[in-house]
Amino acid sequence: MRMRADLMRNLHRPTGENRLSCPPREIAGKATTMLDIRWLEDLAAVAETRNLTRAAELRNVSQSGLSRRLQSLENWAGSALLDRRKSPIELTDAGAQLLATANDVIGRLNAVRRALREDHDHAARSVRFAAPHLLSVTFFPKWLPQIQATIGSTRLTILSDNLPGCCDAFDDGAVDFVVCYMDQANRLNSAGGKTLSISTCQWLTIGREKLVPLSAVDSGNQPLHDLAPGPRRSISYLGYSSECSLGWAVDQKLADATDLPQLNRIYENSLADGLRSMTLSGLGVAWLPLTTTHQDILRGRLVRTGLPELDVDLDIRIYRPQRRLSRRAEDLWSHLVATRSVVELPELAAAVHRGRA
């Protein structure tokens, strides 16, 4: 067991070499030789064939070359590993002990190598995105068919998280691109308390979004919660959780707005769908994405409250790192740069502005 632990602790494979090395140690005043993984594979071949000639053929090396490598392994181990007096040849107890550990080590290394190659191949065949949850269910189903001809059969992966979490995955190299909402003044890059890493990266605008203050309707089809200014008026307000970048955008709009009634924040949710459900129930007013509420507006279930100046206009942007990406990811980026296509808002955007006409 001590030999196994020592071998597992010291073996490593230098880049570009088929070699496992141990730093030289002093044994009886002499430094040991460097361990070559081929020697362990040679020992396994001798144990399998129990014949040096057949083992040399199996290892594609001359018998004299095999013998020299086995001798080097014995020098490294400090013990005889083969009983050459016997025919067929046998391993000594030390050889059997080393072989058991060697088989385990070689098996683990080969498994790691396969996993690393599979991960590399998977990354090379994939295009990986990180995006807030809302975009993964509203924007990507519209956008991906437009770029399908460019990416072909490429495997697509979308990691859904809040914007800081998307940026963490981006920084770690776990994704190729971040797709997110951003205001035209780029204030969202630092609205969450710290500057996001994507603020220094290349980006393209690939879509639009608009957050509209919406309310359920009363019996006269007017807003149940009216944002019209008035003395001592208080309106129930449904807001986004602090980690949600949509909430950062709304907070900036409210900070700039004037002549609003007092907003009484009675409910929070990190998901726009959650706020939409509460708005439909009549609980309060919320700034909701037009892409998820246009059918509610057309059917008269939700109506604008307040003036169009209270809308929050957002771009949908794709950010890329400075490093070189996989060929397929680079092909996608080149296509986006060349076409500059943008997924626009639903045509009812104009109708929203007429909501209170």
Task: Give an account of the 3D structure.
The protein contains 13 helices and 13 strands. It folds into 2 domains: 2-123, Winged helix-like DNA-binding domain superfamily/Winged helix DNA-binding domain (Arc Repressor Mutant, subunit A, Orthogonal Bundle), CATH 1.10.10.10; 132-353, D-Maltodextrin-Binding Protein, domain 2 (3-Layer(aba) Sandwich). Helix 1 runs parallel beside helix 5 (93-125), helix 2 packs across helix 3 and helix 3 crosses helix 4. The chain has helices at residues 2-10, 37-49, 52-58, 63-77, 93-125, 133-138, 140-151, 163-171, 245-256, 272-280, 290-298, 327-339, 349-353, and strands spanning 26-27, 30-31, 82-83, 90-91, 126-131, 155-160, 177-182, 202-216, 234-240, 262-269, 286-289, 302-304, 312-320. By secondary structure, the protein is α/β, with parallel strands linked by helices. The radius of gyration is 33 Å and the shape is elongated. This is HTH lysR-type domain-containing protein. Residues 35-92 form the HTH lysR-type domain. Belongs to the LysR transcriptional regulatory family. InterPro entries: LysR_HTH_N, LysR_subst-bd, WH-like_DNA-bd_sf, WH_DNA-bd_sf.
